[in-house]
Amino acid sequence: MGYDIERFVGYVNEGLLCSICRDVLEDPLQAPCEHAFCTACIHGWLVHHSNCPEDRQMIDVSLLRPLYRYMRNDLNRLQLHCKNREYGWEMVCSLESIDRHERECEYSQIACSNAGCTVQIERRNLDGHLAVCEYRSRECPNGCGYTILSAEDTQHNCVAELRTELELLRSEMICRVEEAKHEMESRLDSQRRHMVQKESILQNEIEELKSQMSRMMSDVRSLMAAERQHRQELEQAELEKREL
User: Fold this and answer.
1) Quick one: which of 91, 90, 96 has its CA closest to 77?
2) Which of 39, 45, 61, 129 is most exposed, with minimal Cβ within 10 Å?
3) Given pLDDT bands bounded at 50, 70 and 90, which one contains residue 139?
4) How many CA atoms lie within 13 A of 239 on its CB side?
5) Average pLDDT of the chain to the nearest whole number
6) What is the H or E stretch that residue 80 is in?
7) pLDDT at 161 over 60
């Protein structure tokens, strides 16, 4: 839907009106036949039709294009009243800036920011409402540190609230201790498995070293026996040489 033409100051060119809703174009698109529409209006029309609502020429969503630049400029320069005129605000601004203005307008109706409050109030009066809102929150005046709503003042019990808070903290601490315990047990199991694996590897290396040492001792004994045999042969040769 477009902008209500009654909000505009002065004359509005016919070419700047939506061909469907007949209000001033909002987020406009243009068909190849140059008829212009609000985006929401033409999309809704094309759900049930396949032609232009003005001249019945065939059109498709893919054929829609933005307005010509000169038409966009004319549209943006139009002057209109703020939507909060009904609340006594006579602000007039250009269509190009109306959305930004209305987002920040002091006369806009906004919801109270307190949870549970359904009051709609002008932005300029929000601070005053928050000061007296029955759903406003504040810290307990008795010093328990609990945040309470004004509507809950009569039900608030410092001792009960602190006891509940203590129970929650105790439960949370128990959960954290259990989590830390499980994590430590998991780490110990992992380290234990690693140590067992390491011990097995070291044991295998020790057995291999023992085997190598055994082979070396056997080789040493063989060399010593060969040396004795060689020495005996030399002594025998020396005796034979003396006899000769």
Assistant:
1) 96
2) 61
3) low
4) 6
5) 86
6) strand 79-81
7) yes
Delimit the CATH 3.30.40.10 region(s) of the chain. Answer: 5-104
pTM of the model: 0.50
Residue that has been written with the tokens 């307008």 in this structure: 105
How far apart are alpha carbons 161 and 24 in whole angstroms? 58
- CATH fold of 5-104: Herpes Virus-1 (3.30.40)
pLDDT value of position 118: 84
Cα torsion for 208, 214, 219, 224, to the nearest 10°? Answer: 150
Whether the CB-CB separation of 77 and 94 falls below 8 Å is answered with yes
**51 beta partners:** 58
- Angle, helices 95-104 vs 69-77, to 10°: value is 50
Q: Which fold is adopted by the domain 109-149?
A: Herpes Virus-1 (3.30.40)
Please give the Cα distance from 211 to 223 (Å, whole number): 18
Region 19-41: what's the mean pLDDT?
A: 93
The neighbouring-strand residues paired with 121 are 110
Predicted confidence at residue 157, as pLDDT, reads 65
Gap between the Cα atoms of 26 and 91, Å rounded: 20
**∠ CA(230), CA(233), CA(236), 5° rounding?**
155
CB-side neighbour CA atoms (13 Å) of 38: 16
Supply φ then ψ for residue 234, to 5 degrees. -65, -40
Tell me: pLDDT of 141 over 70: no
CB 27 within 8 A of CB 4: no
Mean pLDDT, to the nearest integer, of 93-112?
A: 87
Distance CA 154, CA 141 (A): 13
